[in-house]
Amino acid sequence: MPELQRLRADHAPALLAFERENRAYFAASVPDRGDAYFTEFAARHAALLAEQETGACHFHVLVGGDGEIVGRVNLVDVAGGSAELGYRVARSAARQGLATSAVEKVCLLAATEYGLTSLRASTTRDNPGSEAVLARTGFVPAGDTELDGRPGVAYSLDLTALRTRAGAVSGRRYTA
């Protein structure tokens, strides 16, 4: 089972390979990152790490046994106790429960380590896999939205109950 790790500088080569190898797969369900993302990857990666240091974002990767990255789960736009959740899993690792497991772990981190009280997420209506992950992890529909010109659904998750439940289980806290 891949390990959830907080994004670090040494993840850069594997993360770039993950994004390149899965670009077409991801673009079928989420907006494409564009060519600049790949040509300016090193600078962008450094900027993300700097932003993470401020607490405005929390980036995570799923790292397999041989060091390859098979997924990522991000919390962005952290403010006022809330953040936006985003995630993606490699085509080769899809349909194995990895997205659900990773989202669950990041939600727990959001509640217990990052001090957040709620999360937001969204997906296009033609992405039933993502809708299922959000439903399995406790997100509830919060209204319609549009993503890159495509109809979508916005979701929300109240982390208060998760924080209370995590605090009640003595000595069993997940840390990345």
UniProtKB/TrEMBL annotation:
Family: Belongs to the acetyltransferase family. RimJ subfamily.
GO cellular component terms listed in the entry, alphabetical order: cytoplasm
Stated name of the protein: Putative Ribosomal-protein-alanine acetyltransferase
Domain (N-acetyltransferase) ranges: 2-162
Gene3D superfamilies: 3.40.630.30
UniProt keyword Repressor, yes or no: no
Alphabetical list of PROSITE patterns matching this protein: GNAT (PS51186)
SUPFAM superfamilies hit by this protein: Acyl-CoA N-acyltransferases (Nat)
Protein source organism: Streptomyces aurantiacus JA 4570
Molecular function via GO: protein-N-terminal-alanine acetyltransferase activity
Keywords, alphabetical: Acyltransferase, Transferase
Pfam families: Acetyltransf_3 (PF13302)
Keyword Ion transport in annotation: no
